[in-house]
Hints:
Two copies of one chain form a homodimer.
Chain A: H1 2-19, H2 22-29, H3 33-40, H4 43-58, H5 60-65, H6 72-89, H7 91-102, H8 109-132, H9 141-157, H10 159-166, H11 173-190
Helix pairs in contact in A: 1-2, 1-4, 1-7, 2-3, 6-7, 6-9, 6-11, 7-9, 9-11
The structure holds a DNA duplex (30 and 30 nucleotides).
Amino acid sequence: MQHILAASEKVFAQHGFQGATMTQLAAAAGLPKANLHYYFGTKERLYRTVLEGILTLWLDDATTWLVPERHPADGLAGYVRAKMAHSRLRPDASRIFAGELLHGAPHIMLYLGIELRRTVTDLARVIEGWSARGLMDPINPVHLLFNIWAMTQTYADFDVQIRAVLGKVSIDDVEFATATETVVALVLKGSGVRALEERKSA
Amino acid sequence: MQHILAASEKVFAQHGFQGATMTQLAAAAGLPKANLHYYFGTKERLYRTVLEGILTLWLDDATTWLVPERHPADGLAGYVRAKMAHSRLRPDASRIFAGELLHGAPHIMLYLGIELRRTVTDLARVIEGWSARGLMDPINPVHLLFNIWAMTQTYADFDVQIRAVLGKVSIDDVEFATATETVVALVLKGSGVRALEERKSA
DNA sequence: AACAAACCTGTCCGCTTGGTCAAGAAACTC
DNA sequence: GAGTTTCTTGACCAAGCGGACAGGTTTGTT
């Protein structure tokens, strides 16, 4: 059952919801087609189950790292690194989510408008708090989040492009570390985060 | 003919290559299905034609703005603003490209590995030149480009998410201007671009 | 051992899909 | 205005699709 979901994640990531066929999904799971229908009923329900597994995983990083107690130099860097690690370890999850958004989020509109929106509002307040305390520039916090997501997830969603441009068959650890530090630098310096040593000065 | 391509761009952007049906495409163009087949032969050839139209448009911004003669404060800001404008005015083009990459770029691998790669190499040299002249930090130029693309294109590709989080039906000009300036700030400050007034100091 | 409940799967089915085709309508050519 | 090419289209088709289902197998219970 969990095995089916893992196999389906790969297939859905590569072909999308419409592109994936039940025959492919069944073959990937090593089961006859009718078996998937026994467990999940329809292709859409299988897809939704995969999607929901991803969503529950999705916001944990943020609520761990972006908290008022941390200094933004610590919180933002940690968050970016965590998201980059996710892009490296579970690229298929990111790709399914991306495909869903790309086609208008027909299956997760509610989640976006309610749960994600509420979480983002909370996170924005944390960032605004950091700005108010003079720990970083008064950057627009919501757009900062959009851009952090864009940068970190691009390494999962569009890694074909990255591999093609770099001329590498796969992105090795050194290259990925470079990518991570580039993103960290863009975020920290870009949002004017003061160094950890400095104290409030506002 | 051009009219068919414009209509197809919308449909492909919303449903993807697999998700779009010839019937949908024909309806969008206001023509019978057989007519599209008369002009383009197959669905794939129609898709490729749309895609190629996008690709030719895609790299012009870079080669206009990212040139050695400019100061990076001018070049990078101009490039980001141009890409953001593209995301605003032709989101469908960006979405088709994103979907193509997401599914492993089966139709444009060659373009990525050859033409795009060569262009990126050239652009990287320009950025390295700026760094060497002390006009900005010695940031990894290729990853800087990846991240600029990620940030600017996220406003086209994932605008459902952005609209849902912001709680807006559509992104208005003011909001988009905020987004643009946030990205410009992240890029310029993030890569340590010296202010235009300052002169070389290395 | 008997029975029931849960699980598995080969085979079938209606429907949609991309694509074909023949025949007609328009537009050129001389 | 006859002939020829280009364009347009309704009707059709084989293939592949998601899904249904009946009958078999395994597992659990008493």
